[in-house]
Amino acid sequence: MSLKSNKKAIGESHSKLILVGEHAVVYGKPAIAMPFPLKVRATVKESKGPIKFKSSLYRGYIYEMPNEMRGIEECIKETLNYLNKPIRDLHITIDSLIPIGRGLGSSAAISITIVRSLFSFYRQKLSKDILFSLVTVAETYAHGNPSGLDMIASSSEYPIWFKKGKESMTIKIREPFHIVVADTGRTGNTRRAVTNVKKRYDLEKSNIQKSLAKIERIADESKYALVNGDNNLLGKLMNLNQQELINLGVSDDNLNKLINVAINAGALGAKLTGGGLGGCIIALGRDLEHSKVVADELVKSGVEKSWYFSTENERLYVSLND
Ligand code: PMV
């Protein structure tokens, strides 16, 4: 089949937040994640010669990409192989507002945009299953043993209930809720954090299994809180989840300090989000105005950046200060 190129194509995606359940999700427990509207876009154009790539991290040929971007190179190649197209004559540009390595799912979001833009460039329909299998190539390089949560949340417009290897489900939220996100400015290391949890699991199986079981209950009850619009309960559950993340060894003093700042500013709950060992925290505000107060307090305490927004019934977001 001969495929005609569009000469230029765009693919888009967004970042994600894990409300509850990170790390436990790697062990088959449920997690709840939601889209976070920091956007990323890939633009593909025709350009003779080896494939060129341009992003804030790297500019050059894909075959010379630094090691930490190998997953992206492989994802581009796999996608072109799938499309039966030569691995050349393209220029791919990434424009992203998602800070890298902060637990906001930037690697999954970038891979999603790349796959979407290449399919659009060659005017091919892209099913969710194919998207996920191609993005998994890159995510496996980035994480080692990804649960798949990042890529599903980064390609969804709604909060989702996720279990590894199972069909994810949209959660219908009853009441708007108000989220503050604060970036420590420190790059987390999901791969290292996941490996550390595994080591602890092997050394202290019963302790870690208890934590994982508690996180499972927290995720169940958080779903109940969202479906019933009980934000006070959701906040309490986020705090309980943070205690278990501390026990898993993926929080640190700086994250704990910032979480306390948010709680002292009246947040209903707060926890790290994503892999941990750096990255971001999330806090639950009482309303949008109060979320701004919490976000400001976090900036005063030294975070690199904070955002706050409200969900609006099922559709997200009424306001994002970016
Ligand atoms: O740090 P992030 O945004 O890539 O999130 C990782 C989430 C984990 O549960 C720690 C790992 C995974 O594969 O789900």
UniProtKB/TrEMBL annotation:
Gene3D superfamilies: 3.30.230.10, GHMP kinase, C-terminal domain. Its main location: cytoplasm. Its EC number is 2.7.1.36. Pathway: Isoprenoid biosynthesis; isopentenyl diphosphate biosynthesis via mevalonate pathway; isopentenyl diphosphate from (R)-mevalonate: step 1/3. Keywords: ATP-binding, Cytoplasm, Kinase, Lipid biosynthesis, Lipid metabolism, Magnesium, Nucleotide-binding, Transferase. Residues 75-154 form the GHMP kinase N-terminal domain. It comes from the Bacteria. GO terms for molecular function: ATP binding; mevalonate kinase activity. One of its GO terms (cellular component) is cytosol. Belongs to the GHMP kinase family. Mevalonate kinase subfamily. This is mevalonate kinase. It is found in: Cytoplasm. Residues 224-301 form the GHMP kinase C-terminal domain. Transmembrane segments: none annotated. The keyword Mitochondrion does not apply. One of its GO terms (biological process) is isopentenyl diphosphate biosynthetic process, mevalonate pathway. SUPFAM superfamilies: GHMP Kinase, C-terminal domain, Ribosomal protein S5 domain 2-like. Coiled coil: none annotated.
